[in-house]
């Protein structure tokens, strides 16, 4: 074969291979583009699907959907039940959503949802046991009430007795369980044997809705502790910056609560108590005497002041051993941000007015002028 012919064949083969390579590259490029398109379209579709699944089932519907969450239900079981009832669009997406947002501790109970609810609303309801239905019992606990008074209020409307309530709140084993459940607000301090009721001051005064015909004492206590936890959590950092523990701050707030009726009065009286403590004086506040006596009296007598009790601030130094009742949030605020003054004494007249004094002589003058 001539040299020219060989060269011609080589060129032809080279051209053929080049064309083949081009064809392969085109095919590979088409495949890659197709795969990318599939990935993009799939990703976009997936994104749109997830985005849609996170939205309400029907934003325009107020239809009531009854859902019963059994005790001990897992997040997976709750998600499936909500999807089955038409409360959410997709159980799997709901599970990923609560996992991503670290949501848990859903409450069992009978709920009423609507298709227009956002996922966050549904989650909040499940976490707080907020059952969107008409309450069977609505009970208001006024501020300043003691546990024994609360027990009487609940006994009038609930299926349990006052004695049942008091027995449970004084059960040390039960209290130990609650300390583990609410470690940020409850401590071993409340197990002191000299404390009359461990949960005194820790059951927040508020209005409570109950959706069961016969809620247990434990259910009632849990609702009240959840409220206390919600309120106190906003002040834990401030409390940690003081010289007081949470227990002492709550105790202080309960004393201020008994001595004043307005936020302004509470701040001023809290300031007086701080001044007395700094001067090494006893608080000498009558409400602690009444709590120590365990009974209400219209007038505290001199002989009452001598009762030997860790609650009696005429007898004991500093704060009483524990709270003497519930308190308003403004009383806690007053303890954490008292009004600065030089007053060391105050007294009430019979018309709700409070008179302050810097010295004992001024205080005695106020007594003669407004009390005697």
TrEMBL record:
GO terms for cellular component: plasma membrane. CDD domains: MltG_like (cd08010). It comes from the Bacteria. The keyword Thylakoid does not apply. HAMAP family: MltG (MF_02065). It is a single-pass membrane protein. It comes from Virgibacillus salarius. Belongs to the transglycosylase MltG family. GO terms for biological process: cell wall organization; peptidoglycan biosynthetic process. It catalyses: a peptidoglycan chain = a peptidoglycan chain with N-acetyl-1,6-anhydromuramyl-[peptide] at the reducing end + a peptidoglycan chain with N-acetylglucosamine at the non-reducing end. The record marks 259 as: Important for catalytic activity. It is found in: Cell membrane. Its EC number is 4.2.2.29. Its main location: membrane. It is an enzyme of class 4 (lyase). Functions as a peptidoglycan terminase that cleaves nascent peptidoglycan strands endolytically to terminate their elongation. The chain crosses the membrane at residues 27-50. Gene3D superfamilies: Classic Zinc Finger, Endolytic murein transglycosylase. This is Endolytic murein transglycosylase. One of its GO terms (molecular function) is lytic endotransglycosylase activity. It holds the Pfam family YceG. Keywords: Cell membrane, Cell wall biogenesis/degradation, Lyase, Membrane, Transmembrane, Transmembrane helix.
């Amino acid at each position: 074969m001539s040299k020219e012919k060989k060269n011609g064949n080589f060129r032809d083969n080279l051209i053929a291979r080049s064309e083949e390579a081009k064809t392969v590259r085109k095919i590979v490029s088409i495949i890659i583009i197709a795969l990318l398109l599939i990935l993009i379209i799939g990703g976009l579709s997936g994104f749109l699907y997830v985005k849609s699944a996170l939205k309400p089932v029907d934003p325009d519907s107020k239809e009531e959907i009854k859902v019963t969450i059994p005790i001990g239900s897992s997040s997976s079981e709750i998600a499936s039940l909500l999807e089955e009832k038409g409360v959410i669009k997709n159980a799997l997406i709901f599970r990923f959503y609560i996992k991503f947002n670290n949501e848990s501790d859903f409450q069992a109970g009978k709920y009423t949802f609507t298709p227009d609810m956002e996922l966050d609303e549904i989650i909040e309801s499940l976490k707080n046991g907020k059952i969107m239905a008409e309450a069977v019992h609505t009970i208001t606990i006024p501020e300043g009430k003691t546990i024994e008074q609360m027990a009487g209020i609940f006994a009038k409307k609930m299926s349990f007795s006052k004695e049942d309530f008091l027995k449970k709140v004084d059960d040390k084993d039960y209290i130990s369980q609650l300390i583990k459940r609410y470690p940020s607000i409850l401590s071993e301090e409340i197990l002191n044997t000299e404390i009359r009721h461990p949960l005194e001051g820790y059951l927040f005064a508020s209005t409570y809705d109950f959706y069961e015909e016969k809620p247990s004492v434990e259910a009632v206590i849990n609702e009240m502790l959840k409220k206390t936890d919600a309120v106190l959590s906003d002040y834990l950092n401030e409390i940690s910056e003081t010289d007081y523990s949470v227990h002492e701050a709550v105790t202080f707030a309960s004393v201020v609560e008994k001595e004043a009726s307005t936020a302004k009065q509470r701040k001023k009286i809290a300031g007086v108590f701080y001044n007395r403590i700094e001067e090494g004086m006893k608080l000498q506040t009558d409400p602690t005497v009444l709590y120590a006596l365990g009974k209400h009296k219209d007038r505290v007598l001199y002989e009452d002041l001598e009762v030997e009790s860790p609650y009696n601030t005429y007898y004991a130094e500093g704060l009483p051993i524990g709270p003497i009742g519930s308190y308003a949030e403004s009383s806690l605020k007053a303890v954490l941000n008292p009004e600065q003054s030089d007053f060391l004494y105050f007294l009430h007249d019979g018309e709700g007015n409070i008179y302050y004094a810097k010295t004992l002589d001024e205080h005695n003058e106020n007594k003669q002028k407004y009390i005697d």
